[in-house]
Amino acid sequence: MARRILWASLAFTPVVVIARFVFDADATVLFILAAVALLPLAWLIGEATEHAAEHTGPGIGGFLNASFGNAPELIIALFAIADGLPNVVRGTIAGSVVSNILLVLGAAMIVGGEGRVDARSLRWQLIAVFGAVLLILVPSVPRWFGGVSEQTLFVVTIPVALVLLAAYVVITIRNLRIHRDAHREDASAQAWSLKKSLAALAAATLATAIVSEILVHSLEEFGHAVGLHEFFIAAVIVAIVGNAAEHGGAVVIAHRGDTVLATEIAITSSMQVAVFVAPAVALLSWLVGDGLPLSFRVVEVATMAAAALFATFVIWDGTSKRWEGFLLVAAYIGVVAAYFFS
């Protein structure tokens, strides 16, 4: 019954598109419709990823989920740059890294309970996140002390972005080799074919990108109406909404008992945002607007680094524990408070 409701709820996607582009609905109405529409899309991405993982194994399945899930975020960032909102883009990137590590990983551990995680894969990816944060300090520190133009910071950003992209290629190849060599069982008779799974992922990702773009634009007006400042909207609300499909997919998969795939999704997504999405957005930014320097605020850099270090400690023993999930979620609540008062 629940599955039938979720399949039927996919109809909210065309409803929100029609409401936005045909009837030019109020921002609050669009926010509610888009938020509801993202829920079944989250389920569909999680469903398709789980079926794909039966053919590829959990590591590659997590990579596929993170890749498809982060595509809308990349699109949203480019829209925001074109609209002249660089601080929103940087805040969303930082918030995405932190929310995936603390909120999604924590929620997956809470829902999944006691289970196994692929500590070797997750450690490498969390180390990559921390390394990305260290590289981001190069264009960020000059901004903290002022007196440096945005154009100069963007020039400094270019080599940093290139190094991050090269690191992403190396890490991805290494990680896929690890999971390629790992043992996995044959796909069950009920599993979708790999082709059908990938097609569903692509379709759900495209729909998520459209709905997320509508939601982001309605969020800005909604945030101003309730008195939330731009940074908080970007780092918390937009970051969570932009990754809603991935977040929901990881939790759904954890609920079904696959803690390996669920935790892989959370950490791979965070790594991709830090090591791929951020530099890709920076390098593509000059095509749609002014160049985007990867010059983050102190609170953004500090929370990204702290989240990566905390999660590394949690997953080090290769097991998922419910109480550790609660600790991660509590840490995220603390980060949200820091963002609110910063």
Write up this protein.
- It is built from 13 helices and 2 strands, in the order αααααβαααααααβα.
- It has helices at residues 2-9, 12-21, 27-56, 58-82, 86-112, 119-145, 150-181, 194-226, 230-242, 244-255, 259-288, 298-315, 322-341; strands spanning 115-116, 319-320.
- Strands 1-2 form a two-stranded antiparallel ribbon.
- It is globular.
- The N and C termini lie far apart (45 Å).
- The mean pLDDT is 84.
Strand content: under 5%
Overall structural domain count:
1
From the N-terminal CA to the C-terminal CA, the straight-line distance is 45 Å
What is the name of the CATH architecture?
Up-down Bundle
Oligomer: single chain
One letter per element, helices H and strands E, the order comes to: HHHHHEHHHHHHHEH
> What percent of residues adopt helix (DSSP H or I)?
over 70%
Characterize the biggest β-sheet: 2 strands, antiparallel
Overall average pLDDT:
84
Task: Give the low-pLDDT segments.
Answer: none
The radius of gyration over CA amounts to: 19 Å
* SS summary, helix count: 13
Shape: globular
Strand elements, count: 2
